[in-house]
């Protein structure tokens, strides 16, 4: 991709009222654009990051047996009345009427829809266990939508729902998903801690949140530096698992999982017939991750005073090539490198803009935060300057050396 052709350029100033670092940098860098309070458009740079996160999540969900579906956003009132949540959701549902005056909600979650689907299609114990997930838009009627992608009204969520014949099977699968979530967040560049949480209006007896340690986080947790223990309770003086002294840290919540038990299957009549031909309630779990919030948290955890430092796994491009040229010779050399890297399957953003100073190009490269910056100029001669985004060190390499290093 050539920078001059990229839709959504960098801005010199952060939007007014943007307090969160992720809000400032994602708007300034041309990743997102605000349409209204809590409602954002993802521009090409931002959507590339979003898709990288989506693929990491999809791979890990498939690895624990998930089957991907896509469920309706528009949900009839009657389903929500079955679970007595039509007027009890927090935040409240976005509600609308069609031309026949029938009421619908814009889905903030999909327990009712997925339970209805399963109760009509699952009949026997032989149909279970079943793990269904989607990556789909959700709507939350937040009173105060601030902090960019950290608190929004419309967002994309991965929600997985599991269905089981016994509580024991639910417990086993719940642990598998906990481990899958740890893998997801580790691949996105996080230190993750799991804490017990309130089930809220989703329900269920057991619930856990995944907290990303981050200096700008809005939540405070205590965690053990030796083992995996973490808690949001501040009264503990040491780790109950290994007696190590606990440390405190700021964190951002990025995933929430629930053992729903038979809450929804009971209220909606979701049964299966067991081996003895006995009718029994299906046991359920649900597991969510907000993708935009996760993207923002990556920025909160990976940035400096100049801009974003994307982890390689989710960066919009592999490399940012900057051409510093006053003549056709350098332009020709840079273009050749650009084509060579593309031919070798390397995803590259090429800043070939004319009439833009080197200082502006370098500042944009730092702001956008692609892991590797390459420079071609009169000073580099027949070589290429290599610089990692998180380092001040530079090296001069041949094009062959650049390709080899990037393909590692």
Describe this structure in words.
The protein folds into 2 domains: 3-301, 2-Layer Sandwich (BirA Bifunctional Protein, domain 2); 319-406, Anticodon-binding domain (Rossmann fold). Helix 1 crosses helix 7, helix 2 (44-63) runs antiparallel to helix 5 (167-187) and helix 2 (44-63) crosses helix 7. The protein has helices spanning 21-28, 44-63, 77-82, 111-121, 167-187, 263-268, 291-301, 328-343, 358-368, 399-406, and strands at residues 32-36, 39-42, 67-68, 74-76, 94-97, 103-106, 130-139, 154-164, 192-196, 206-213, 219-223, 230-231, 247-261, 271-273, 279-281, 283-290, 319-323, 348-351, 372-376, 384-388, 394-397. Helices cover 29% and strands 28% of the residues. The protein starts with 20 loop residues before the first helix and ends with a helix. With 408 residues, it is an alpha+beta fold. It has 10 helices and 21 strands. The strands form 5 sheets. Strands 3, 7, 8, 9, 10, 11, 12, 13 and 16 form a 9-stranded mixed sheet that branches. Strands 18-17-19-20-21 form a 5-stranded mixed sheet, with helices on both faces.
